[in-house]
Structure formats: C-alpha cells, structure tokens
Specification:
This protein has helices at about 35-60, 70-95, 115-135, 140-155, 160-165, 200-225, 230-250, 265-285, 295-305, 310-325, 330-335, 350-365; strands spanning about 1-5, 10-15, 20, 35, 180-185, 200. With about 375 residues, the chain is mainly α. It folds into two domains: about 1-20 and about 35-285, no CATH class; about 295-375, no CATH class. It has a four-stranded mixed sheet, with no helix packed on it. Helix 6 (about 200-225) packs antiparallel against helix 7 (about 230-250). The model is unreliable at about 5-10 (pLDDT under 50).
C-alpha cells in the first residue's frame, strides 16, 4: 500500500494491487490465481469476530457452564459465515442481474467478485433465527454478542475495496484542498470519470465510522451490561444504516440498484433499517414491559422456599411460555408451566399453593399487580 502526501495533513491511498501473491501462469491447476487481499481480509475479519464473540458470550454467562457459550458460538459461526456469504452473493446477483441474465452460471464465479453486506446480514439473521428456534436458546442474547464482532469485521473487510480499486467515491479535482483521496488506476475508473485520477476514499471513511460504532457497542456492553436483550442488535442496525447513507451518496462505482430502477438498493436497505431499528428501540424502552427476571427470581425463591438456581430456572421457563403464548389465557399458561413445578421441588407446598404462585408469577411477568387481579398471597 502506497501512502503519499496530499497537502497539509493530507493522505493519498494507492493500492498495490488485488493480490497478496500470485501463482505463476504456468502453475498446473491454479495458473494465474493466488491469494487476494480481499480474501485474506475477510478471513482475518471472521477470525477476530469469532474470538471477540466467544469472549463476550462467556463474559455475559450465556450458558450455565464455563466454555459452553464459547462452543455454541463456534457452531453458530459455521451457520452464519456460510449463510452470510451465500446471502451476500445472492443479493449481489439480484441487484446486478444484467451481468448474469445471459449466463446465470456466472453467479457461481465468486472469484470474479461480487458480494453485498446487506444480503449477508439478512441471510445471517435468518440462519440465527432458525438455529435458535431449533435449539431453544435465546436468540437475542446471542445476536447481541455477535454485533461488535460483526461491525469490527466490516471495518476490516471494507479495506478489500481499496486493494481492488473498487467502490470509490466521487472524483476529487486536482485543485481541491480535500486532504484525503485514493488513486484509481485508469482501467478501474468508471467511464464517466475517466479523466480523474483521485477519488474520495469512502472505504476509509466507512472503516473509521464502523470502528466508532464498534467502540459504542463495546462501551455499552461494559458500561450498561443489563440493557434489554436486542438493544445491541437494533443499535447496530440504526448505526450502520446511518453510516451507509453518506457512503452511498458519495459512491460512484460498483453501485447496486433495485432491478429495473435507478434507485440505489443501499438507500432502501438503510431507510428500512433506520425505521425498523428506531421503531424497535422505542417499542422496547417505551411501549413494551420487560420484567426484572432477577427480582422475580428472588421473589419466587422467598415465597416458595426454593434455592436461587431452582427459582431462576422456573422463572426462565415461565418467561419462555409467556413469550410464546402471550395471547393465551392465564390459566392455560399456568397449566403449561406446572409440569416444571412438581411437588418434588417444593414438597411443603400443596398443588393449589404452587398453582397460585405460578398465577402470581405470570401476572408479574406481564407487569400486573397480582392483588389487583384478585389473587391472594400464598399462605
């Protein structure tokens, strides 16, 4: 990578090429190929993201036994990396269909480039949902710890555009005093801008902004560890949507449009992300009641004479039933929960007392006062 001066405190980027090294053309089977910077950066991004996510999952104690959360993340990583890569490629093919309509098999020629992060995010989210649905784990908790590693990986991977001399910004006139610029070789310039040599290094802008979002998410983890599940997910969605809008405004190369239109696909994705992310954060913190499960655990342990761990497991099971059967009648939810509260757990309580406790617990999970529902205190 060549970095030159561009005026006072200025910086000019000039790519050394897309390959770290190449095999000689006469090399059997791999002639003319080699290790590309983009591939190397993606591998580094995945590795660092995986290590960070494992550390955060263990720090948040997402599983009971030490090491279990880390193992779960490793399994999830396989799902997410494969699905994310396929989704990113599919999104590119759909938004650049004119390049593939005459020969759809070119969609499999991934070595020729062409992936878009929005497709990877959507496919990864779907894979995470299916995995969590199949295994019964709390998807929001795992999604939250994935977000810092994801945006860190994006900050690293964005430099692949630099090495490929692609996805650059608007041209910078020779007499401009703007301090940051990237040199684009003639063969990589868009025809409408062939007379310009220097362009806005939007890969650099986004990489820096991604690092700022990464710092924000990490700061939230350590400073406010008890925020509601999903907070980091929607903060990421809002933050990255805000980052992507100015990026697309400046971008003049490798632009993805909605099929049959002149509308940039990233504009639509960012607009949807902003509306959805802000809406979900408002809903979570203004409109939705989220019970304090730790407080309810202490209450149930005291009322039923249970160990904290046993009470915590009962509360978690009741909360899972509450979320899955929110519209069901209170007595129906109690019926679903009672098999998890057998007499063996509290032999000193009668069946009626245990049912009453579960009815009170579900009322509290909904934010309602059991006394206001006509439920007496257990004797």
């Amino acid at each position: 990578m060549n970095l030159g001066s561009a005026g006072l405190l200025g910086l000019t980027f000039s790519s050394p090429g897309e390959f770290v090294f190449r095999f000689p053309p006469e090399t059997p089977l791999v002639g003319g190929l080699g290790l590309r910077w983009y591939g190397l950066l993606m591998a580094i991004a995945v590795l660092l993201g995986l290590l960070l996510t494992k550390a955060l999952a263990e720090a948040r104690h997402l599983e009971k036994e030490p090491g279990e959360a880390s193992e779960r993340v490793e399994i999830l990583a396989l799902w997410l990396v494969v699905s994310g890569f396929l989704g990113a490629r599919l999104y590119y093919v759909l938004t650049h269909w004119s390049e593939f309509q005459d020969n759809p098999l070119l969609a499999f020629a991934i070595w020729r480039g062409g992936i878009i992060i929005h497709g990877g995010i959507l496919a990864g989210a779907l894979a995470l949902y299916l995995y969590c649905r199949a295994t019964g784990i709390n998807g929001w908790k795992y999604a939250d710890v994935i977000m810092p590693g994801l945006i860190l990986g994006q900050a690293i991977g964005r430099w692949g555009n630099f090495f490929n001399s692609e996805a650059y910004g608007a041209p910078i006139p020779p007499d401009s005093s703007w301090p940051l610029r990237v040199y684009i070789p003639p063969q990589a310039r868009e025809p409408d801008y062939s007379q310009f040599e220097f362009f806005h290094p939007i890969f650099f802008y986004e990489s820096l902004l991604n690092l700022l979002l990464f710092a924000l998410l990490m700061g939230m983890f350590w400073r406010f560890p008890k925020l509601k599940d999903g907070t980091w997910v929607w903060t990421y969605v809002v933050g990255y949507s805000l980052i992507r809008i100015p990026y697309e405004i400046l971008r003049v190369s490798a632009v993805a449009y909605l099929p049959g239109t002149s509308i940039k696909a990233a504009y639509v994705a960012s607009a949807v992300g902003l509306v959805l992310g802000i809406g979900m954060l408002v809903y979570m913190y203004r409109l939705r009641f989220d019970p304090d499960l730790e407080q309810l655990t202490a209450w149930l342990a005291q009322q039923a004479g249970l160990e904290q761990e046993t009470a915590a497991e009962l509360v978690q099971r009741a909360w899972a039933i509450q979320q899955k059967h929110r519209r069901a009648d209170l007595l129906d939810r109690v019926t679903l929960a009672m098999p998890h509260f057998p007499s063996a757990l509290a032999p000193h309580l009668s069946l009626g007392q245990r049912e009453l406790l579960m009815r009170q617990l579900f009322c509290r999970l909904e934010g309602r006062d059991p006394a206001g529902e006509g439920l007496p205190q257990p004797s």
